Amino acid sequence: GAVVSQHPSWVICKSGTSVKIECRSLDFQATTMFWYRQFPKQSLMLMATSNEGSKATYEQGVEKDKFLINHASLTLSTLTVTSAHPEDSSFYICSALINEQYFGPGTRLTVT
Amino acid sequence: KQEVTQIPAALSVPEGENLVLNCSFTDSAIYNLQWFRQDPGKGLTSLLLIQSSQREQTSGRLNASLDKSSGRSTLYIAASQPGDSATYLCAVRTGNQFYFGTGTSLTVIP
Asked: Which chain A residue lies closest to B39 (C-alpha atoms)?
């Protein structure tokens, strides 16, 4: 089956720094990838749709200048959390779309 | 806007019991519906995908049904096992938009 990886699986950073999370489709190419955020014991909240070769489409309320998304190739999308704040601490999950969504294992971000 | 609701929010059953998880959605114009499993601190694992033209899908002890007209899907788990303990999420697709339910946290007691 289709495999999606994320790196890192967890990261701790200080307030004000930037963190980059990578999402890779390992055995297939994906024109479209999605980035989600999940708070404890809550469902997934779609942050943005990442389209290869074009600008990401952000959901209402998501700051595009804070959460930078780059989908430079058909197998890689990156999410950069800029000027991280403790409120950005969360579980970030990406998925790649080919007929159905295949999810990465998630990245736990903790901002101190 | 599509709204997806899952009932119950949490469920605890003894091992061996058959159980049903429910998912309802407000807009019946869906492309497909997917059931996922999520273990604590992990990503989502796809369990079953039902296209809008289908009524049900089966995989092992899992059976998912879809009634588009009433906006409902059920996930039936037969002979539950402790390893089935996880959070189960349903998601409906409309175009390239995906809407997730709030999840059902399942605990199977040995």
From this structure: A105
Q: Answer whether A60 touches B (CB < 8 Å).
A: no
Using CB atoms, pick whichever of A41, A43, A105 lies closest to residue B43: A105
- Residue A28: C-alpha distances to residues A70, A87, B65, B83 (Å): 18, 34, 29, 30
B46 near B56, Cβ under 8 Å? no
Q: Which of A1-5, A45-49, A59-63, B79-83 has the highest mean pLDDT?
A: B79-83
With beta carbons under 8 A apart, name residues in chain A contacting B91: 101
Q: What is the pLDDT of residues A49-62, one digit of tens each?
A: 998 888 999 999 99
- Taking alpha carbons only, the member of A71, A55, A56, A84 closest to residue A22 is A71
